[in-house]
Design goal:
Layout (H helix, E strand, L loop, with lengths): L4 E11 L7 H15 L6 E4 L3 E6 L5 H13 L5 E11 L12 H16 L3 E4 L3 H18 L4 H12 L5 H8 L3 H10 L2 H15 L4
Parallel strand pairs: 4-5
Antiparallel strand pairs: 1-3, 1-4, 2-3
Length: 209
């Protein structure tokens, strides 16, 4: 047993993963994304081929982590990802994240099953239904843009999250495009609005601690 702490967990699976001729393509991208979010492999795992789970100890960072995973996977032609966020206590820490237990892990796993049935790609569950209802409405609206990210849009979102303080001109040098093209891609991705939602998420979720 461990002290009762609040944590967050993302459980997800790759949509249409079997359509890929070379699974290594998305598996390597997913591994790189999860490694970026947690350098300690004990806190993330890929299992059953196209499913994965990662614990994000800082609950205020869980939405931006989900965004990052989605941007990484959407940068591959024809793929998308379902993401279920669970926020709650952690009562047991296993050697691997999938062996750990507590509300956050149960909420995340159960919510992923709900997403599969309802064909929605992002949802959160906490032990506060009012917060869940409000954030899930915001998520549903945000998905109108996020589910339609092109490869270029997804790539610029990924790069913007990796380099939060970079100027558009600096992001342009990293991608080989000019500042105007970076601006256009960020606008098409609705990046400003998505980052506003991240601030709202942080404000709401921090009331749980």
């Amino acid at each position: 047993m461990i002290p009762n702490i609040i944590t967050s967990v993302i459980t997800g699976d790759i949509i249409k993963s079997r359509t890929q001729v070379s699974p290594e393509t998305w598996i390597n991208v997913l591994k790189e994304a999860l490694s970026f979010l947690s350098t300690d492999k004990a806190y993330w795992e890929i299992y059953r081929g196209d499913s994965f789970q990662i614990e994000i100890k800082d609950i205020s960072s869980c939405f931006i982590a989900a965004l990052y995973i989605k941007a990484c996977i959407k940068s591959i032609h024809g793929l998308d990802v379902r993401l279920a966020i669970g926020v709650g206590n952690k009562t047991y820490e296993g050697e691997q994240v999938t062996e750990s237990n507590g509300e956050a892990f149960i909420f995340s796993g159960e919510t992923l099953e709900t997403l599969k049935k309802e064909k929605q790609n992002l949802r959160i569950k906490t032990n506060h239904s009012d917060i869940d209802h409000e954030l899930n409405l915001y998520f549903k609206l945000a998905l109108i843009a996020m589910d339609n990210w092109t490869i270029n849009s997804a790539e610029i979102v990924k790069l913007s999250i990796e380099n939060p303080d970079a100027l558009q001109s600096e992001l342009g040098k990293l991608t080989g495009i000019n500042q105007n093209a970076v601006s256009t891609r960020q606008k098409r991705a609705h990046l400003d609005e998505v980052m506003e939602l991240d601030l709202m998420y942080r404000k709401k979720i921090n009331t749980l601690t």
